[in-house]
Design goal:
single chain, 204 residues, alpha+beta, 7-stranded antiparallel β-sheet, 5-stranded antiparallel β-sheet, 3 helices, 12 strands, 22% helix, globular
Length: 204
C-alpha cells in the first residue's frame, strides 16, 4: 500500500516572513513489514520517520493515522525566513521551537476561548533537539484529556508529531509512542528517495 498524506501547513507563524521560499516537501506513507514509514521527499533533501506497530492505517479524521487504534498526526510547517539551517546551535533551535510553540498556544487558546494548562521540556533524541509540549483540554471535553506534541527542525521545516490522549489512555503511553517515532527520524542530506524502490525494500 502507499498513501499520499495531505499536509496541514501553517502560514501565519511569527517565524514566517514572505521573502524566503522554503524547499517543497511531499509526504508519502509506505507500508513496511513491521508497520509504516512516512517519507518527506523534497527537491534536494529527504527525511523519514518509521512507525513500528501491528496496525497503521489512515484515520477518518483529516490528516491523521491510527497506530494500533491511537490517533497520530505528522505535520511539516515551513519556515519562510532564510536561516543557515545547517549550522543552527542547540540554543538557536530551542528558541525557534519555543517560538512555534508559543504561537500555537496563543492560536489554540483563541480557538478554545480558554487558557491552557500546559507543560514543556526539551528532549535530546539521537543528538537532535526536540520540544515536548503537552496541554490539558478544557473541562467539558469528554473524549480527549490532553494533546501532546513533539517538535523538531528538519532542514527549513518544523516536523510536528502530535497525538491526543483519550480518556482510556495515559500521557506516558502516548508520549512513548511519539518518542519511539522520533528515535527513527532519518535525514538524507542532498538526496531524495525513490519511493517505488524504497517501498519494495521495506517489505522484504
Amino acid at each position: 500500500m502507499k498513501y499520499i498524506l495531505a499536509l496541514v501547513l501553517s502560514t501565519a507563524s511569527p517565524l514566517l516572513f514572505a521573502q524566503y521560499k522554503p524547499e517543497d516537501f511531499k509526504a508519502a506513507l509506505l507500508e513496511t513489514k513491521d508497520g509504516a514509514m512516512i517519507v518527506y521527499n523534497g527537491e534536494k533533501n529527504a527525511f523519514t520517520v518509521r512507525i513500528v506497530a501491528a496496525s497503521v492505517t489512515p484515520a477518518t479524521e483529516p490528516n491523521f493515522l491510527r497506530i494500533n487504534n491511537n490517533l497520530f498526526q505528522s505535520t511539516i510547517i515551513p519556515f519562510q525566513e532564510e536561516l543557515d539551517f545547517k549550522t543552527l546551535t542547540p540554543e538557536q533551535q530551542k528558541e525557534l521551537l519555543t517560538g512555534y510553540k508559543n504561537y500555537e498556544k496563543e492560536y489554540i487558546e483563541e480557538q478554545l476561548k480558554s487558557k491552557l494548562i500546559d507543560k514543556e521540556e526539551f528532549l535530546i533524541i539521537n543528538k537532535k533537539v526536540f520540544k515536548y509540549w503537552a496541554f490539558n483540554m478544557p473541562s467539558g471535553n469528554e473524549s480527549v484529556k490532553q494533546q501532546l506534541y513533539l517538535i523538531t527542525i528538519c532542514y527549513d521545516h518544523m516536523l510536528v508529531l502530535n497525538a491526543p490522549v483519550v480518556k482510556n489512555r495515559s500521557e506516558s503511553t502516548i508520549k512513548g509512542i511519539l518518542v519511539d517515532i522520533a528515535h527513527t527520524l532519518q535525514l538524507y542530506n542532498g538526496k531524495t528517495l525513490d519511493l517505488e524502490r524504497l517501498s519494495k525494500e521495506l517489505k522484504k
